[in-house]
Amino acid sequence: MTQQTILPGQTIGILGGGQLGRMMAIAAKQMGYRIAVLDPTEDCPCAQVADKAIVADYADPDAAKEMAACADVVTYEFENVDVQTADYLQTHSYLPQGFRLLEITKDRLNEKAAIQAAGLPVVPYLPVRNEEELEKAIRTIDFPSVLKTTEGGYDGKGQYVLHDQADLEEARPYIGKIPFELEKWMPFEKEISVIVVRSTTGETSVFPVAENIHRHNILHHTLVPARINEKLHAEAAQYALRLAEAFHLVGTLAVEMFVGTDGKVYVNETAPRPHNSGHYSIDACETSQFEQHIRAICGLPLGSTDLLKPVIMVNILGQHVQPLLDKIPELSAGAHLHLYGKAEAREGRKMGHLNILGATVETAIADAQKLAVWKI
Ligand code: ADP
Ligand code: MG
């Protein structure tokens, strides 16, 4: 595919109209691009800020045609892009990120193999595609461990934490019907992540390392700079760059890692798109992950990823929306509210996030705690 420079005034097509698509669109619109979004839901978060919304199933061939007719470049906000749609857009439009990386990262087994092939450590794992493989995996990996569906999992969905044989019962009906992998439970010091972006011109940039705190497997809050030593900061950035190179990345790659209690860094999983743990960059970095992504796919020079101030990013889930709205008069001067325009505030649903900048991570945390919406 010949590299093209896409200039403001031209149209960026986005597959998927959730919050990631919306924040990509906002960054792009700021630079003067036009946006077309494909999503089956009317008035989805991205459609609210787009110039054109194609409301159709992702696999609808007419929708792919309509997208190709209006977009000068196409990108995506999620892993599970329909193969036929991607294939059509690759031929009839400009899809600089290609399709190969999606195929690697949407399957945990492929992904782990690719990470290992890049020379990076992962937690011990084995495939579980039938009863025999399950027995073997339990014998080898033992408890505690975690059984994960190889495809389609997010926010801990499709995962079973196993302390003993009894914990297997819930998952047993699915064994042999859908593919799983069994992973050793990793006692970790910290969970961290790094966003790396590579443009169509080959220019690469890395964002500061984020420290992530999950609750019920959902990202609860992110702290930047991560509270780890300099050596680990450098190592995490190096790992992300290594993967960008090994994966022939174009666009954005989020790399989730564990810092084990053994002091070593292990790669947990990757996502070929902007990531929840990079939302802090909207207010705390010179260039946000979304602007950087747009620059990368449009072939523009990348921006500086320097951290302007320490920050905490706290996710606003369904149950936090009203308590937070009640506290708006108490927001500190460094607080920046982002809401995604979702109609229904269901429990556990990601509705927005709050970035609070501070002189230090500790003062930012203290400001978040004062709101008493979350227990930080
Ligand atoms: P998802 O696709 O749902 O984000 P992850 O593999 O990242 O799936 O798992 C979600 C969270 O569950 C992780 O961020 C981590 O907190 C916990 N987790 C997952 N795998 C392990 C493991 N092997 N050891 C310890 N904790 C884990
Ligand atoms: Mg994860």
From TrEMBL:
Record's keyword terms, sorted:
ATP-binding, Ligase, Nucleotide-binding, Purine biosynthesis
Its pathway is: Purine metabolism; IMP biosynthesis via de novo pathway; 5-amino-1-(5-phospho-D-ribosyl)imidazole-4-carboxylate from 5-amino-1-(5-phospho-D-ribosyl)imidazole (N5-CAIR route): step 1/2
Family annotation (InterPro entries): ATP-grasp, ATP-grasp_carboxylate-amine, ATP_grasp_subdomain_1, PreATP-grasp_dom_sf, PurK, PurK_C, PurT/PurK_preATP-grasp, Rudment_hybrid_motif
Q: Where is the ATP-grasp domain?
A: 112-298
Q: Which reaction does it catalyse?
A: 5-amino-1-(5-phospho-beta-D-ribosyl)imidazole + hydrogencarbonate + ATP = 5-carboxyamino-1-(5-phospho-D-ribosyl)imidazole + ADP + phosphate + 2 H(+)
List, alphabetically, the Pfam families matched: ATP-grasp, PurK_C, RS_preATP-grasp-like
Give the SUPFAM superfamilies listed for this entry. Glutathione synthetase ATP-binding domain-like (SSF56059), PreATP-grasp domain (SSF52440), Rudiment single hybrid motif (SSF51246)
Catalytic activity, EC: 6.3.4.18
MF (Gene Ontology)? 5-(carboxyamino)imidazole ribonucleotide synthase activity
The answer to whether keyword Protein transport applies is no
Enumerate the residues binding ATP.
R108, K148, G153, Y154, D155, G156, K157, G158, Q159, E191, H214, N268, E269
Q: Which PANTHER family match?
A: PHOSPHORIBOSYLAMINOIMIDAZOLE CARBOXYLASE (PTHR11609:SF5), PURINE BIOSYNTHESIS PROTEIN 6/7, PUR6/7 (PTHR11609)
Subunit note:
Homodimer.
> What does this protein do, in the record's words?
Catalyzes the ATP-dependent conversion of 5-aminoimidazole ribonucleotide (AIR) and HCO(3)(-) to N5-carboxyaminoimidazole ribonucleotide (N5-CAIR). Catalyzes the ATP-dependent conversion of 5-aminoimidazole ribonucleotide (AIR) and HCO(3)- to N5-carboxyaminoimidazole ribonucleotide (N5-CAIR).
The family annotation for this protein states:
Belongs to the PurK/PurT family.
Q: What is this protein called?
A: N5-carboxyaminoimidazole ribonucleotide synthase
Which species expresses this protein natively?
Sporolactobacillus spathodeae
